[in-house]
Amino acid sequence: MANSFRAGDIVLDNERQALKVLVIDEANGIVHVRLYDGDFADAEAVLAARNANGLTWTIGHVPLELGALDPATCVTVAHEEVHDDELEGYRFYVERFQDSAEAATRTSSEGVFHRIRKAFGEKA
Fold it and tell me: In the predicted model, is pLDDT for residue 100 greater than 60?
């Protein structure tokens, strides 16, 4: 599957939530992301928060089906290096689920953050 996102992209989705692409595993159809706190009106608001105080992550690692990052509903806001400490959850995932693409969240018509909140029992 062709993918327009790359590791290090800060992305804003259609639910006004920001995330960072950590690793793209095209062989297994999985993208690994870090989720940021906040509700952002647009890409400029994400950049302003990032430049003012930095973005605060809420969940350090989430594996998603690669199709969950749809260029039609998600926009790249910025690009930065992926730091080694950001990959801790990813490394745990690889150790635990090394050959299991089934561990990735499956795409649905709902947004990325909606599915995650639902999975953790929060009111979506």
Answer: no
